[in-house]
User: What shape does this take?
Amino acid sequence: MALAQSNMMELGTKAPDFTLFDTVSKKQLSLSQLKSNTATVVAFICNHCPFVHHINHKFVEVANEYQAKGIQFIAISSNDVEYFPEDGPEMMTHVAQSLNYSFPYLYDETQTVAKAYQAECTPDFFVFDDNLKLAYRGRFDESRPNMGTASGRDLTNALDAMLNNKDITKVQYPSIGCSIKWK
Assistant: This one.
């Protein structure tokens, strides 16, 4: 496992548009179709990463809670499936079904979306406002595998601030996880 941390895209950056295959609905979905008028969370995850395994159940719980408040969640897997076949679309569908993902789980086969977002690791989180301007990027919380229980505190603090029309703290920490497996 190659450890990496977020690149920390500049706040205020416009979300790069994309259209990707959703392994849940089996449809091509675009950011413009999916975006919320409140906030949109784009999470780069994968199936094999222990850092994603560590947060996955809590991530689903957070997504369910905040989607009910009008925030859209989108998960994207960009790993090279030639070397990591467990991160391919069939297994993505299986993981999404077994964990009851209530959000799209998109497959970035060409890795152009991960590059456009400057994603570096799994998990890597980006929160965009109603105008698709970056308001938060970085970690889910301070926990790590075998080091604490996932809470989603950093992400939920940002989402709560957005829902309450308050400023999100500019003190944001990079996510740490497995590097995206580039082709």
Summary: The chain has a mean pLDDT of 96. Residues 50-67 form the longest helix (18 residues). Helices lie at 31-34, 50-67, 89-98, 112-116, 153-163.
